Amino acid sequence: MLVIVLLISFGLIGIALYFANSMSLEMRAADNRTSGLASDQIIEGAARYVNSMLQIYATNGAVPDISQYGAEAVPVGSDKVPEANGRFWLIGRDPNGSATASEPYFGLVDEASKLDLNAPWLTSDIISSNLPRMTFDLADAIMDWRDTNGTGTSLNYSQLGYLAKHAPFETVGELRLLYGATRDTLVGEDINQNGVLDANENKSGLTDPGLFDCFTVYSRQPNAHSDGTALTNVNDQASLRSLLELRLGTSRAQTIMQSLFGGIPPGGGGPGGGGQQPVPVFGSLLQFYLAANQTAAMTADEFAQIYNDITTTNAAFTIGRVNINTAPAVVLASLPGMDLNTAQQLVNYRRSNPASLTSIAWIVDALGSSSAPLQSLAQGDYITTHSYQFTADIAAVGPFGRGYRRVRFVFDISEGTPKIIYRQDLSRLGWALGRQTRDTWIAKSTP
Fold first, then answer.
1. Percentage of residues in the chain having pLDDT higher than 70
2. H or E element: which one contains 106?
3. For the whole model, what pTM was predicted?
4. Residues 6+ apart with CB under 8 A from 330
5. Is residue 112 part of a domain?
6. Half-sphere exposure of residue 202, counting CA atoms within 13 Å on the CB side?
7. Which residues contact 57 (CB under 8 A, 6 or more apart)?
């Protein structure tokens, strides 16, 4: 009887322990699900935070400074129990950073710091020159994919189950469909796409981001202020004179206008005009500044006073301008006439002279007005210091460091009010906040 009682007792104890362990696991699973839901809501709140911040600081194409907003371990919750707070991070890219960085950079990503796949001036020769892992075959495939005139190579994708698009790119992700595009080509060794090499990714010892970090389809710049008022076209003499008089004074405006246009009256000199001398037509603001600098000694400070108010086109939007204040060296090197050495020279200059980056005029001081790369850049409308689209790559954890989630948003403010135009869940790529963040914010929050 004693043996039977003992067997029954041990059986009941085993059953009790089994159910207790099951309930413990279920409790942890429920807690993780709750933390995941909390992280989802933290990301939604972070997106609203970014939207509000852009509305305040990113007016008229200004790129918000990292000191103006929170981007790292921003708490969401009660101050009474700090470890129970959820937190979010904005995973960014440091345009002046080291190629051997081991921890992520936190901040917004300026989409104008990349090459727009739909830019009218982008050619296969340009993108195959200095971009990492780019091949001539992939460069040709990019041109063929977006070609709308049937003048490309017309690559046949039917064996893959689809046809070439022959229309503008809608997302950078479309690159995955092209011949010559592989995972190594598009993301390099940065498998979780956080801009640095984590311990499990480090093969070569250098961060090689691949092509996803170099391309965008969001770099539309409006030719109007945020309140809807049009910019002044520098090719409209009457409007330009009025702006110069307003900002620089009547005497200085007269000197600049005389040096640029001589005695040519507004509308004169061209077809249907009454003058004999041809009227200069500026195709880019850099070309305009070089002419004013050489003929009227317009200074960079004077140009900065009108830069935010001028344009060279009457089109509603301009696509494909690269922000020289934020673009990394590999993107700058892909601009017409540029190479890696010249691009690094620009990066070094802007790192040493942050107060001079008020307009595109600083590039003249950095390269010299007679340099061949500068003259090439002046021939087209390639560069800017304004940006209207930003990526917020938001990663979040719930209370006590649980429930990791990550969602990438693209915000567009080209029509005045910020709006989300792209959203992608990247939680599947795994932890992207680096070891230091895990040690600092996650481990110590574990109850």
1. 87
2. strand 105-106
3. 0.88
4. 130, 131, 132, 214, 340, 343
5. yes
6. 11
7. 64, 65, 68, 69
